[in-house]
Write a structure and sequence with these properties.
The structure is a single chain. By secondary structure, this protein is an all-alpha fold. The protein has one domain. About 80% of the residues lie in helices and about 0% in strands. It has 15 helices and no strands. The relative contact order is 0.18. Keywords: Membrane, Transmembrane, Transmembrane helix. One of its GO terms (molecular function) is L-lysine efflux transmembrane transporter activity. This is Lysine exporter LysO family protein.
Amino acid sequence: MVWIPFLCLTIGLIVGVQNLSDSVLKIVDLLVNIALVGLMLTIGANIGINDSIMSNLGTIGLNCMIIALSSIAFSVIFTVLVEKTILPLEKISRKLSSKKINVNDEVNIFEEEKKKMSPLIWIMPVSIVVGIIFSITMLPKNFILDYALNIFLIILYTSVGISLGSNRMIFNYIKVLGWKIIFLPIAIFIGSLISGILSGIILGLPLHISVISSSGMSYYSVTGAYMTQVYGVEVGTYGFMVNVMREFFTILLLPLLIKISKGSPIAGGAAGNMDTMLVPVTKFVGPELGLVALITGTILTFAVPVILPILYNFFM
């Protein structure tokens, strides 16, 4: 299983750089949406047939909330350190503004895409509930759903590679901002990693649960599916809930985060800055630094599918 993410990402990148037509990219998006709904149904079904999870949902939810909030907090701390030493985002914002380089076009495009995505945002949690109800009422307790998880995971990993390979503008933006931009996603990852370690110790959780779930950095679909596949549904529930909560609490805390520093909202959004978090984060940091958010989210979105199997191998 460890090598599958790397293979799928590589295949996706190779396909993505082939100047795919808009119609092909739309088909890829459709397949991803179908896979996401199927994934949520499968996770829900796995939860429903697990008596241990159903009887401990309250405790699991509280643990996930603590891990999510600490992941945001530590990512912000390390991002502020990077801002004050290596990457002064205030100066970068002024530089990009003087060159009239910003992320407005991407944000405007995403606003339109968000309208199309809005039903999916509701369908995904509903799918989990439907999966739970279906499994409780109709599935036998020993029903195995591993094959479905594997298929959906392969589709999602490959789609990440295609998305990154087809988005060549990101590489041009990185050239404009310079190589130091890489320190921002590194800071977010280190903060998430440390929060996972400390949360696991404080909550008395096995470190592989807290560390790997916090290292998902808002990428809840892949993190939840991967952790379910390799550890089982109870651990996979952490991977999903922690990263959904990270996005939720980041949006809730954006007015506070922007008062801490320009990079703090970006730190909270993490991998989500590539898609769902791009618009709300950009509204707070401004269109110039929205570009930084987009690049950071893209780097982390690519990194998460690589980081998860590495951490899994480490904890083995």
